[in-house]
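Researcher: Next sequence.
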Amino acid sequence: MPETEDDDPSRAVTAVILAAGQGTRMRSSLPKVLHPLGGKPLIAYSLRLARQLSTYDPIVIIGHNAEQVRQAVGDAARFAVQQPQLGTGHAVQQAEPLLAGYEGLVLVMSADMPLFTLETMRALVEQQRANSGPLTMLTMLLDDSHGFGRVIRAADGSVREVVEEAQATPEQLAVRELNVGAYCFRAGWLWSALRRVPLSPKGEYYLTDVVGIAVADGLKVQALVLPDPAEAIGINTRVHLAEAEGILRRRINTAWMAAGVTMIDPANTYIEPDVSIGADTVIYPNSFLLGSTRVGRGCVIGPGALLRDAVLDDGAVAAGPYGALPQRERA
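Model: Next structure:
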């Protein structure tokens, strides 16, 4: 359910999801944000977070393959078209007409960053709710910058500026705190700040420039450091997609084992996000539990079982192609 702690309009949350990019490095006719991860399109993960955190329907910024993305998302969001694509600051600006008169917070995230957790994004929102300044941004600490911009802090711990890697000095390049690219803004300040963002030498308007605008106005910019940098993986290639698939699978399997499910070989067990499994179920290797599969308590699955949208009653056996394994005798 959306967070609606009180009737104060300034505490409301609306999410803006950036999904207008072309994704040329995927080498695909399918829009990048529609490539599947854990059986769902990438954009489904940011939409799920938006539904859990937002007071209102999220806004998806579309551009390349706009109609294909619009059809895939359906009525789960409102849409704004960025045409032409002139950078991230320009992309967020397209949401302004849909938020006329809105006084709450604007949570900005990218549809190609599917691994943010609800706990992290809720903490980002809560930190901005407590922030007297206009924005809070996500950062991470990492030795390998992966090309992310450096976050330069002031003496009081607030953010002074974000410096892109290509423009950073040797001293700034040594900074380990990096800009993740997710933000929570006060709406009333955001739109006026975006109109003041300068045109870059590349002919684009960068959202990171609003940090400098806030500091120039004498306003504090806060930052929340990610507890796990893996959350910040962005999908730009199929190699990134495979890396994210592995992280997501480990998260899902770890959660089910903590809930009382036995996996003989978690690295070779594939469970999609909407599956449910009862305690004391045993899953043998190379088994796939897909879609909305529902597994009761004390079941035995595999090895090599493939279940899609299946329902297993308590104590059921779902054998793989080689039949069911014999039950072990009690010691």
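Model: Confidence is low (pLDDT under 50) at residues 1-5. DSSP finds eight helices and 21 strands in the chain.
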